[in-house]
């Protein structure tokens, strides 16, 4: 079912009508993933990079109980500056809308909404996945299942968040048949660190190669999304292994305070930002912007291929 017309920002609606390139962007990074004022600065920079590459940004959220696909600058500012914004996965959308809430959409919700609206390219920071200790807690992100359902979509990210069990997350993606491709890397990125030591079978070297791969994936009708994994820029990357020491203490504190579920990820990321002296925050901001730019370049190439009939 397509999105209602009133959910679409006019610029996004016009681009979709003419078959132009559009890139979906999530809003949890604005409300929950980054501190103020960095959150608003990064959201604006990501949109600017999408425009600079020739595509239209469509940041997705729920504003006052209304689904919004493409936000005004005032709406970005509203999400960035308010406390109490709901963190909404796919299952939380109806409660947010019925209660008239503001809600920032996670990867699972953003990807579902984007696909429903006919936007097949999505950029984010790090994916959710299998949490450490999931064998006991069963804490596994809905992102994984939504990626398996998102037939023909492209998701650009920097791997999965470092707080997760990265080998188990990569294995879970493989089990669900989700194609993971490295962008100029043969290694699964580790969010704010450039590599995890986990090899990837497939890689591409350019936006054009990525577009050709996605087009082939779509033409075959293979289920699931294509995950294009781009390492954080080298200049802003956190040194390998540095995150692990801070994460151990943050996990222990979370257990003591019984912080679980949707609250766990922002808590852990906040503690890691504090413990790294700002390094992880700088890296997180840089990779979000770079992923938006790459997604836009691939979206433009895909649009050009469709126009030429290739």
From TrEMBL:
Q: List the GO cellular component terms.
A: cytoplasm
Which cofactors, if any, are listed as required? Mn(2+)
Q: Which InterPro entries match?
A: Indigdn_synthA-like, PsuG
Enumerate the Pfam families for this protein.
Indigoidine_A
Kindly list the positions annotated as binding Mn(2+). 139
Catalyses which reaction(s): D-ribose 5-phosphate + uracil = psi-UMP + H2O
What GO molecular-function term can you cite, just one?
hydrolase activity, acting on glycosyl bonds
Q: Which superkingdom does the taxonomy of this entry point to?
A: Bacteria
Which Enzyme Commission numbers does its entry carry? 4.2.1.70
Which keywords does UniProt give here?
Answer: Glycosidase, Hydrolase, Lyase, Manganese, Metal-binding
Q: Where does substrate bind?
A: 87, 107, 141-143
State the similarity comment. Belongs to the pseudouridine-5'-phosphate glycosidase family.
The entry describes its oligomerization and partners as:
Homotrimer.
Under which name does UniProt file this protein? Pseudouridine-5'-phosphate glycosidase
Organism for this UniProt entry: Tautonia sociabilis
The gene it comes from is psuG
